[in-house]
Write a structure and sequence with these properties.
single chain, 335 residues, mainly beta, ten-stranded antiparallel sheet, five-stranded antiparallel sheet, 4 helices, 26 strands, elongated, binds calcium ion
Length: 335
């Protein structure tokens, strides 16, 4: 994860430099052109009607220069109420004795019957498996990883049992998270997610990979017995407070300002619109099917939704039939 984070920081630095070479981001207000979908024939027939209504947006706002706090997640999609509790997190490899294939991590009453049982793991490097053990119960997961974190937690206080989340690195910082709970004499998989799990005072967050608009990943909260995502929308991963402080000119609310070099078709207030080239945009969120992105202009006066055709086989992101890297000149992860 450290490698991924360092990589992301380098990516963000390069992005910021690229944006900086294309003019001062705040030297002009964002311009959004709204088209009128109700009168397509009139637009085609009349030259005057082809001039769409243009909304000039107010002066851009400069972020507080001295504010070095970790940026808040922009906008207010509903986020899960706190229903989760982290009891303990185990770095499995640190618990392993040298040469051992398994270890007991702790004693805990995972099933809620009032009696503690031993929770542990066994690793089979020949079969590439990880077996999670809870007393008499066990489950074997496929894994080629040697980096494991196991979260002992209570995902839903209304259930009698507690949960385990196994977070394994399959190589190249490609994590998979498996949420488990005890049921009878078995451990049951609630959900497996491609992503890295972290926890804060609000929820468990899963960092999922994406390539939308040059990002590397996005996060969203998961909670509940089924370890379900609490929002359709993922928040783009935010860089560190130190990085934000050092790169104020191209950052806003923790994201990188993307420099538009092509008019971007989008939806504003439910109406078709175009954000004209020359503006800088901030990617706020994207949805879990990678088909929509929420963006805002750098002064945050206009928020828009961009429809994206995601070709998963070729990992291509197309906007109005054009690859995303033709819209911006400072994407780090291009198609
Ligand atoms: Ca028990």
């Amino acid at each position: 994860m450290k490698k991924l984070f360092a990589f992301l920081l380098i990516a963000l630095l390069l992005c910021s430099l690229a944006c900086g070479t294309n003019g001062t981001p705040n030297d002009a207000g964002a311009e959004v052109t709204r088209t009128n979908p109700a009168e397509p024939d009139a637009q085609a027939a009349s030259p005057e009607a082809q001039q769409p209504e243009t909304a000039q947006v107010s002066e851009t706002a400069q972020p507080e220069a001295q504010d070095t706090e970790t940026p808040e997640i922009p906008e207010s999609d509903p986020v899960a109420k706190l229903r989760t509790e982290l009891i303990e997190v185990f770095d499995v490899m640190e618990h392993m004795e040298i040469g051992a294939s398994g270890t007991t991590l702790c004693s805990h009453d995972l099933d809620g019957d009032g009696t503690e049982e031993d929770i542990g793991v066994e690793i089979d490097m020949e079969e590439d498996t990880l077996t999670v053990i809870d007393g008499e119960r066990s489950i074997t997961l496929e894994s080629s990883s040697m980096v494991y974190y196991i979260y002992l937690c209570d995902l839903d206080a209304s259930s009698p049992y507690h949960n385990l989340i196994v977070c394994a690195d399959w190589g190249s910082d490609s994590f998979i998270a498996t949420a488990l709970h005890p049921e009878g004499d078995r451990l049951i998989i609630d959900r497996q997610v491609d992503g890295y799990v972290s926890w804060d005072d609000e929820a468990f967050w899963v960092d999922e990979l994406t390539g939308i608009f040059g990002t590397n990943s996005g996060v969203r909260p998961y909670s509940g017995d089924a370890f379900e995502p609490e929002s359709e929308w993922l928040v783009c991963a935010v860089p560190s407070a130190e990085y934000v402080a050092e790169n104020r000119q191209n950052l806003y609310e923790g994201g990188v300002l993307l420099h538009l070099v092509r008019d971007l078709p989008c939806t504003v207030d439910g109406q078709p619109a175009v954000i004209t080239k020359g503006n800088c945009l901030l990617l706020l969120r994207f949805n879990d099917s990678h088909t929509q992105a929420k963006v805002c202009t750098e002064d945050r006066s206009v928020q828009a939704i961009v429809d994206i055709d995601f070709n998963e086989e070729e990992w291509l992101y197309l906007i109005d039939g054009v690859e995303q890297d033709e819209y911006f000149d400072n994407l780090f992860y291009a198609d």
